């Protein structure tokens, strides 16, 4: 699982690749890297070609002053697959990577076999208050302060306290502090902040895919979420499940924002079963045109989207957010 590198559009992209068979693209979350998938890559590679990139601005990839929007990341994933000679793939996206996976499926449905969204961003507005704070001015100073030896010790004590108190944040605190450790210099911190501000502001998530989730009709989709996710609430899983026709929902009881770390055996089993029991999406230009023309399903009556009240609320909120 050693890192490989390719230069695309003048920037060095790092990625891991293993196995043979139908392609699976693993897309990590904000501040993370391809190393986050280390426990599940070997199992997936037994029957599949697994590609796990470091997103631009993350890990061992270059960190330019660039466009870090979900649309730009989706384009980057398409171009990396093109360089590697891979036409279609099943997309597995975690957190921000889930938003990128949904965006990829929207922009390039003809290249998407299936969607597996893990604690994905881009559904509701709610997000951990710490991420809202990091989107504010002065975030670079705050992140650099957290790397000071004394602050790191206090942060570790705080993480252990949250876990002892059995809070949801306690499930994720140690993982989140590891992300801070992965930002060793000003360039890394700048790329992290630019990425975060593309999807989060002081009010919460600013990008949504709810208004076009109906386009996943006919595309096999599975959602995985930790019941105690402190970053992206599990309620978003139920909202996305209701908005995505025919989707499958799997909740990891007691897990936080990283269910594939909490229970990698179950995660691997679910992915393998999903791959074995579904057929790749059969995309056609005519069907895509029909879905676009029909638009979002509307319930009978003067108002309503034909979905649950919580999803309807999120859809109405979406009018204030960026539907990229």
TrEMBL record:
High-level lineage: Bacteria, Bacillati, Actinomycetota, Actinomycetes, Kitasatosporales
Keyword Hydrolase: yes
Source organism of the structure: Streptomyces himalayensis subsp. aureolus
Keyword list, A-Z: Hydrolase
Domain (AB hydrolase-1): residue spans on this chain: 22-261
Family matches, as Pfam families: Abhydrolase_1 (PF00561)
Compositional bias segments (type: Basic and acidic residues): 310-324
GO molecular-function terms, A-Z: hydrolase activity
InterPro entries: AB_hydrolase_1, AB_hydrolase_fold, AB_hydrolase_sf
GO cellular component: membrane
Protein name as it appears in the record: Alpha/beta hydrolase
SUPFAM superfamilies, A to Z: alpha/beta-Hydrolases (SSF53474)
Disordered: annotated segments: 300-324
Top-rank taxon, per record: Bacteria
